[in-house]
Amino acid sequence: MNPHISLPRHNSSGPSTFGSTPPTRNEGIRMPRFFKRLFKFPQMDFEMAIWEMTSLIIAPKKVFRSIYYHKQTKNTWHRPDPSFTYLLSFFLLLTSLAWSLAYAPTLSQTLRITLTFIFIHFLGTSLLISTLSYFLVGRLLGPGVPGLPGRRRQGLFSQPPGEGEMLEFGYCFDVSIRAFFPVWVVLYVVQFLGMPFVGKEYWVSLFFGNTLYLIAFGYYTIINFLGYNALPFLQHTELLLAPTAVLIILWFASLFGFSMPRHLAPVLWAGANLGSKAV
Q: What is the four-CA torsion angle of 203, 208, 211, 215, rounded to 10 degrees?
């Protein structure tokens, strides 16, 4: 039997599918690549994730410079690689064990601290902030009348074909988890090592302890700003730096007697007691 190739009919009312797979009803419903790669560890770029973590402390602006190359090759600002999430979750697991050994006398409290650090502090907070940013930043700081906030439609994990540039929820999540890394370094590592000092009832301890929180939340705000400022279609992103003024005011007010480490230490959120080791 001779192979036969049928040409598309010229009188067909629908679009031609010659040389391509015919469209199906569910073609527009696709699982995001981020979820497809959740358990494909050989495909994850952990080396890139380590470089990003180092750069977030030394030169955070470099982290978001590479998104232009990713946008040109993948047509999405979101990077569907969960390696950063897994790596930071592993670091939180280690620090949760350290906090537990110091301040949690029972196994149940250790498990509670571990789950709280990873699923509430890190993933829960990142999902909350990224959701708020998706609806507020994308709609209020998008393209519009010069000098005024704009509004535009938004995507989730990719740029729909034929649409203009839009903020993706996946990119908001990328920014949020990267902004959490300096918070982990300052409040989960440095604060833990300094708790015997910053938890004391001295004004110098109060000053250094509260300054740690100012640095951590200030870093978080700056990295959020850098992440959204890297998108060329967003305007007035400098408004995202406004929380830094509020942080400075709260930090100055706290120096009159409110010790943040004694009331806001991460281990307290999990129901553990700092005990006499922190005072």
A: 180
pTM: predicted TM-score of the whole model, two decimal places: 0.79
Handedness of CA 112, 218, 44, 158 (dihedral sign): positive
Which amino acid is present at 92? Answer: L
The C-alpha atoms of residue 241 and residue 248 are separated, in whole angstroms, by 12
Instruction: Give domain status of residue 100, yes or no.
Output: yes
Any idea which residue has 């604060």 for tokens? 191
Exposed / middle / buried, residue 197 (Cβ in 10 Å: 0-12, 13-18, 19+): middle
Domain that holds residue 242: 44-278
**What's the confidence (pLDDT) of residue 208?**
97
Domain assignment present for residue 111? The answer is yes
* Residue 22 pLDDT level (bands cut at 50, 70, 90): very low
| Measured distance between the N- and C-terminal CA atoms of the chain, rounded to whole angstroms | 88
Q: Has residue 108 been placed in a domain? A: yes
The structural domain count of the chain equals: 1
pLDDT tens digit string along 198-226? 988 899 999 999 999 999 999 999 999 99
Is residue 117 assigned to a domain? yes
Distance CA 10, CA 14 (A): 10
Of the candidates 276, 46, 237, 217, the residue with the CA atom closest to the CA atom of residue 141: 237
The identity of residue 128, as a single letter, is L
Query: Based on the number of CB atoms within 10 Å of its own CB, is 224 exposed (0-12), middle (13-18) or buried (19 or more)?
Result: buried
User: If DSSP codes are grouped into helix, strand and coil, which group holds residue 132?
Assistant: helix
DSSP notation for 47-82: HHHHHHHHHHHH-GGGGGTTHHHHHHHHS-SS---T
β-partners of residue 150 are 141, 142
